[in-house]
TrEMBL record:
<dbReference type="InterPro" id="IPR001647">
    <property type="entry name" value="HTH_TetR"/>
</dbReference>
<keyword id="KW-0805">Transcription regulation</keyword>
<dbReference type="InterPro" id="IPR050109">
    <property type="entry name" value="HTH-type_TetR-like_transc_reg"/>
</dbReference>
<dbReference type="Pfam" id="PF00440">
    <property type="entry name" value="TetR_N"/>
</dbReference>
<feature type="domain" description="HTH tetR-type">
    <location>
        <begin position="13"/>
        <end position="73"/>
    </location>
</feature>
<keyword id="KW-0804">Transcription</keyword>
<feature type="DNA-binding region" description="H-T-H motif">
    <location>
        <begin position="36"/>
        <end position="55"/>
    </location>
</feature>
<dbReference type="GO" id="GO:0000976">
    <property type="term" value="F:transcription cis-regulatory region binding"/>
</dbReference>
<dbReference type="InterPro" id="IPR009057">
    <property type="entry name" value="Homeodomain-like_sf"/>
</dbReference>
<protein>
    <submittedName>
        <fullName>AcrR family transcriptional regulator</fullName>
    </submittedName>
</protein>
<dbReference type="InterPro" id="IPR036271">
    <property type="entry name" value="Tet_transcr_reg_TetR-rel_C_sf"/>
</dbReference>
<keyword id="KW-0238">DNA-binding</keyword>
<dbReference type="GO" id="GO:0003700">
    <property type="term" value="F:DNA-binding transcription factor activity"/>
</dbReference>
Amino acid sequence: MPRSKEQFEEMRNATREKIHSAAMQLFVHQGFGSTNVQDIADTAGISIGLLYRHYKTKDQLFNELVAYAVEGLKRNITFFESNQSPKKLIAQFVDEVYADMVNGEELAHLLILINQSLLVGAATASPHVEEILQVNARLLDTTAQLIRKGQRDGEFCSGDAQEMAALFYASIQGLAQMKVLLMSNFTMPSPSVLTAFLLKKRE
């Protein structure tokens, strides 16, 4: 029986997910320059011809993964711009980061991939370099504004909000790198440890 259009689409999406997962793993562990399309095809368990049907070049695949990561950063900005309590927003965000880091590698890989895209942007002619810089700056500013609101509401400790936002993301980025480097020896700090510098202790 011939496959339906929906079945073909499911197969296509499943193949793309395999390619994405393999490429992220290799780009993060080997670096963009040391990874070739044959490596990606082998790791994904598909033929190189099938990979080329989805992506004409390694650069195209890398840029699509970076675009996906950037969309995630934009969603974080929108999330932090909502009208909920700053303490509640930060707690939910940190809980999700914690769960993602404990249960899988995708978040760690995406964070490292964003950094790699800035480092290899010139080599890949990535159209995302300027966008990443702008989105990162917006995310820092939005988070700093959220921290200021939390300070006014008496939920967060006093301090320079911009510096606190930078420390917050530097911690998460550093933990992503540690997870990749240490693998099974990595221990993810609890949400309460990640927010200890920010949340006011109850008296």
